[in-house]
Design a protein that fits this description.
Blueprint lengths: L2 E4 L4 E7 L4 H13 L3 E5 L5 H12 L3 E4 L5 E5 L12 E3 L4 H11 L4 E6 L10 H9 L3 E4 L8 E5 L6 E5 L4 H10 L7 E6 L5 H13 L5 E3 L3 E4 L10 E3 L4 H13 L3 E5 L12 H8 L2 E4 L3 E5 L7 E3 L4 H10 L7 E4 L11 H11 L3 E4 L4 E4 L7 E3 L5 H7 L9 E4 L11 H7 L1 E2 L1
Parallel strand pairs: 2-15, 3-14, 6-7, 10-11, 18-19, 22-23
Antiparallel strand pairs: 1-23, 2-24, 3-5, 4-5, 7-9, 8-9, 11-13, 12-13, 15-17, 16-17, 19-21, 20-21
Helix pairs in contact: 1-2, 1-3, 1-6, 2-3, 3-5, 5-6, 7-9, 9-11
Length: 427
């Protein structure tokens, strides 16, 4: 296993231009491929997750051209559902934003499919989506661990209809259904059982669907209505804004050490829920200036907070790392879905924070962090999770060397992260 040791960092200062949002990139790739007309995507994220989607789209017969740097993509849309592909076996790595919507789309296409991923994906649950698709008439079974990929799916049996899905696990299941069901023959109604988590990600989904000419409505995230027989329409050119989750590490680092950073490609009109991360770090003591196209963050004396971060579970991991440097206890609540992400993030974060000297208590959906008097030198297990690796890079501001196991796991969403982080770090 490769390791990266980060020597202590004194200050973060400079400017960073963000890669495109992963959430927007994979949604845009899929909808542009299903749309009528040609679409040019700009500032597309180039990462393992988007490459998994690109490969799947090409496997489905769509003409797709990438620029040399991978940030521009021209797609000739299919004008509706894809034809049955010659190769029905899909391997999607650890890309949740690819495997879930593609599974829903494939359930509408006649054929026998195998949908699989890497060793980490084979541990990630997908049963709530499969159960929902079965309710609508799909046939599917698991070839390995029950409730996880690989999935054996018979497509073409699903025509829309009424169903219920749990809202307290992951918004990605609902996103997959919302993107697929407009292409079914009948109107669909989705009732949410319990409280819906990660609502800002659903807003991203509904917003980009509208950008591509398809409507879906909801009543306070409790009931979603989706008309059938719709067709996605190309918007022509589509600019993907910078990734707000990736920005959180730079914002958090600047807040920790009284440094300052300007992040380009993200502004006050962002459609991404993780932009609300800035509200929490202001509460902790950071100074934030938001413009249309950039954000400045500078640091101050951080204080612990007691916050519900259900709406920004990815960026909540950055808050957990910042808690190492805050005065007083930090409590992050309503983050049960940390446990069903790329790894059990509750365990990974608690383990890493403890190794660094913090006192940590976890409950089913809550983490409580008491900062150490001094950061300990430590080796961090990432469990193949890109956000664990990037979050714990902030520990390098504590005056001790920090070793990150498997640093290349950041290729999932931000391949150049450690190089860019180093470029604005002063040692």
């Amino acid at each position: 296993m490769k390791q990266l040791t980060l020597s202590p960092i004194k200050l973060l200062a400079g400017e960073v231009t963000l890669p495109g949002s992963k959430s927007l990139s994979n949604r845009a790739l899929l909808l542009a491929s299903l749309a009528s007309g040609a679409t040019t995507l700009t500032n597309l994220l180039r990462s393992e997750d988007t490459q998994a989607m690109v490969s799947a789209i090409r496997q489905l017969g769509v003409a797709l051209e990438l620029s040399h740097n991978g940030q521009h993509c021209h797609i000739q849309g299919n004008g509706g559902l894809f034809d049955t592909p010659a190769n029905p076996e899909f391997s999607l790595g650890n890309a949740g934003t690819a495997i879930r919507p593609l599974t829903a789309i494939l359930s509408l296409i006649p054929g026998e499919f195998v949908i699989d991923g890497d060793q980490y994906m084979r541990e990630r649950p997908i049963a709530h989506l499969i159960d929902a698709l079965r309710t609508l008439g799909a046939r599917a079974s698991y070839a390995g661990k029950d409730g996880c990929p690989p999935i054996q799916l018979t497509g073409g049996l699903l025509n829309g209809g009424d169903l219920s899905i749990r809202g307290d696990i992951s918004s990605q299941y609902l996103t997959a259904l919302l993107m697929a069901l407009p292409l079914s023959r009948r109107k669909s109604t989705i009732s949410i059982d319990g409280e819906q988590v990660s609502k800002p990600y659903l807003d991203i989904t509904l917003g980009i669907m509208a950008d591509f000419g398809v409507d879906a409505s909801h009543q306070d995230y409790k009931v979603f209505q989706i008309e059938g027989n719709q067709t996605y329409q190309s918007p022509g050119n589509y600019l993907i804004e910078g990734d707000a989750s990736s920005a959180s590490y730079f914002f958090g680092a600047a807040a920790i050490n009284r440094g300052s950073i300007r992040v380009h490609g993200l502004g006050k009109n962002s459609v991404q829920g993780d932009f609300l991360f800035l509200d929490t770090i202001e509460q902790m003591g950071a100074t934030v200036v938001r413009s249309d196209n950039w954000v400045d963050v500078s640091g101050g004396e951080l204080r612990g907070v007691d916050v519900d971060l259900n709406h920004i579970p990815d960026a909540a991991m950055t808050i957990a790392a910042m808690a190492l440097f805050a005065k007083g206890k930090t409590v992050i609540r309503n983050i049960y879905n940390w446990r069903v992400k790329e790894t059990d993030r509750m365990h990974a974060m608690a383990e890493g924070l403890t190794r660094l000297g913090a006192k940590v208590l976890t409950e089913s959906d809550t983490i409580i962090i008491e900062p150490p008097d001094a950061i300990h030198a430590a080796t961090i297990n990432t469990y193949g999770d890109h956000r664990v690796a990037m979050s714990f890079s902030l520990a390098a501001f504590g005056g001790a060397p920090i070793t990150i196991n498997d640093p290349e796991c950041t290729k999932k969403t931000f391949p150049d992260y450690f190089d860019i982080f180093d470029s604005v770090s002063v040692r």
